[in-house]
Amino acid sequence: xxxxxxxxxxxxxxxxxxxxxxxxxxxxxxxxxxxxxxxxxxxxxxxxxxxxxxxxxxxxxxxxxxxxxxxxxxxxxxxxxxxxxxxxxxxxxxxxxxxxxxxxxxxxxxxxxxxxxxxxxxxxxxxxxxxxxxxxxxxxxxxx
Length: 144
Hints:
This protein has strands spanning about 15-25, 40, 45-50, 55-60, 70, 85-90, 100-105, 110, 115-120, 125-135. By secondary structure, the protein is mostly beta strands. The protein has one domain (about 20-144). Strands 1, 2, 5, 7, 9 and 10 form a 6-stranded mixed beta sheet that branches. A 4-stranded antiparallel beta sheet has the order 4-3-6-8, with no helix packed on it. A hairpin with a 2-residue loop joins strand 3 (about 45-50) and strand 4. The model has no long low-confidence stretch (mean pLDDT about 85). Keywords: Signal. This is Pollen Ole e 1 allergen and extensin family protein. It comes from Eleusine coracana subsp. coracana.
């Protein structure tokens, strides 16, 4: 028996969660973080898009007051045909007119997802990925 990993139970529920943060670079809005010289952007729409052959999955969520988003699949969404290489996260536009120029990643490029950890939830296990930071900036920094 040495070195063998036990088989997981057959009824293990497994979902995916992808998290990230949306920032406004250089503007001192509510929640300004000096270490990154940016303020969180609440109410930004984040999109998880996975594509493989004829399969496609698109899920949205909105950032909270800290600019944080968590996009989660549920037990009824089919994620098994995808690998992390098939998926990207997009923040198509900033919710702030004063901070609307995409800096990183560039517009329409999206951010690849990277596995971080497993998170036990009440009746399932979730694979948690990160899409990292999304940064917008003002067209004119003097107008923050």
